User: What shape does this take?
Amino acid sequence: MKKINIEFAEDPSQQDINIVITADKKDEEVMELIKKISDPFESTITVYDDKGSAIIIPLEKIYSISSNNRKLKVVSEDGVFEMRSSLQDIEQELKSPSFIKISRYEIINLLKVKEFDFSVSGTLRIEMNNGLETWASRRSISEIKKRLMRKENDQ
Assistant: This one.
């Protein structure tokens, strides 16, 4: 990862904020930085704590989003929250390729998976980095395998 140096220059004649990025080349890291600066809320979602207060959290902090009794539970690095939406709506809203639906009731972040256990015939146990354990439905296993193979080939 490249080191980022930030410099501020006050200019009273400026009405807007101008950001200039200088690097040796316009690579993937630079493009990701430009994307984050141009729309800092693009990779976030709004969740609600137990008091009903709205909190914005980055997608990369999410372990899983699951549906239970018509409520969405979001497990993240910052705690467990609720969402006011359907799982289907959230699935369409998540633009990150790191999220995958593992059952009718749950979406996980592939970047937060510690281990996939295919050892029990016909099932898939998934252990997350935070110790959370979940299971994929049988009909989701082939799609999960495809995504893992694609991810492996991309590296």
